[in-house]
Amino acid sequence: MEDLNILICEGNTPEEGKIFQDVGIPTHTESLKESLAYYNKNLKIDVLNPCLKLDLNEIVPKLKKYDGLIWGGSSLNIYDDTPEIMRQISFMKECFKNVKKILAICWGMQVAVTAAGGEVKKGIKGSHIGIANDIELTNDGLNNLFYKDKKNKFNTPAFNFDEVVTMPAGAIHLASNKINKIQGLNFKTGVSEIWGLQYHPEITYEKMINIIKFRKDALIKKRSRFKNEEEINNHINFIEDEIKISEKDARMLELRNWLNLIN
Questions:
Q1: CATH number for the domain whose boundaries are 5-203+251-262
Q2: What are the domain boundaries of the chain?
Q3: What residues of the chain score a pLDDT lower than 70?
Q4: pTM of the model as a whole
């Protein structure tokens, strides 16, 4: 695998990233860098935060140098009309004109889908808190090189309350589970080919557990996802059981395959 130029777009605001760092949790960009290095330590990686006001006249002409773009997760909700979110959607549209291969993870997929004319709403069948169970590949997923060597049905780290309800025109549905119909998709727009995931192959279950512990009050009081700490602890135990049988290589195959696709 030759050296590649990769641009990572951080989905969280700088303030949210600092909150993570202050409690000792790696940012999503740090998790991405670590996981990508598992497959290729020679990647040339630049990081950009499109939540911020960007000098597009300076940045956009440089986008064509990247072999691929990865847009990571966030705690934002795409349907909220905030400047940070609108900036991300606008910048994604610029990327569609300039970057040929895009991996859009969780929030990144929601931004890409929205920018391409699809729709994202609050999930109506529940949420994923640290783990998604029984994701199953569609026939198109089984035949897509993005899922080469992936099991037909698998569990994976995930953390989301929202879901894609309408895919962009011409998109191919790759994976699904009982909570989110669209767990994986593939579509083309502009010069770009986009692979989108609603889950997180780049994040460890251990990090997900730390996020759950950090957000436990919000998960109980704000999100009403758990009744009390006992339910949270039982859920953490469930994830810890998954750690015992989970294999790193199997968990991160999508990253390996995407790097091979852009190589």
A1: 3.40.50.880
A2: 5-203+251-262
A3: 1-2
A4: 0.97
